[in-house]
Write a structure and sequence with these properties.
Elements (H helix, E strand, L loop, with lengths): L17 E4 L15 H9 L2 E4 L2 H11 L9 E4 L6 H8 L7 E5 L11 H10 L3 E4 L5 H9 L6 E6 L4 H18 L2 E5 L5 H11 L5 E6 L7 E6 H5 L11 E6 L2
Parallel strand pairs: 1-4, 1-5, 2-3, 2-4, 6-7
Antiparallel strand pairs: 7-10, 8-9, 8-10
InterPro entries: 4pyrrol_Methylase_sf (IPR035996), 4pyrrole_Mease_sub1 (IPR014777), 4pyrrole_Mease_sub2 (IPR014776), rRNA_ssu_MeTfrase_I (IPR008189)
GO molecular function: methyltransferase activity
Protein name: SAM-dependent methyltransferase
Length: 250
Amino acid sequence: MSAPSSDAGRGGAGQPGQLHLIPVGLGESPVGRWLPPEVQALAARLNTYIAENAKTARAFLKQVGAIRPLQDIVIHTLTDRTDAGQIQDWLQPLKHGGEMGLVSEAGCPAVADPGARVADIAHGMGLTVRPWVGPSSILLALMASGLDGQRFAFHGYAPVEPNERMRQLRAWEQNSARGNQTQMLIETPYRNAAMFAALLGALRGDTRLCVARSLTTTEEWIRTRTIADWKSRPAPDLDKKPTLFLYLAR
């Protein structure tokens, strides 16, 4: 997949514009390690973005070498409370052509991410939605885990309350055993140790658990072991490090 040239693919009179879904990094690592040059060039020339966090978006634009001053780039901030009407207003200029970028806080926009609403509304407005190659923590962890990559479910966060969390982890384990389905979840980084302990306490000994930490960075660490094996070893260092947990029951 290559980036549009300076004139092609940008829309024009009578043509709808394009919403570009551009992945951003998962941690501290050189941009060339996780984003193809063509996508870097595309991101560098866009002058309007929708992003969860303007500060993070500007840091990304600095990484890719934005061709105009950062203060001249329009960044609309997307939250869970942003209503559909506001998103339509942001996208309205694309009805007459042009381009806009959508970025996430980390990884691929619109995958387990509020940006999905933006893509959905863009389709409803008849705009072109273009996904671009880049890092997805969900897919990278699944690739490396050795667990079932055909049947899987990403749940986001488990309940915080310990008893409710244990019930939910076990319910997902039952689903996994019935359907040979990999279960995937994340936790707020400072709660990773508690989540790891909860998984060891809730799951059966022969269930396989993958811990995928700090993907694409120098601290990347990925291991898949049975719960019984995990219990026989010291706990990994997960404190304040982005981590995905994946498990598959027999």
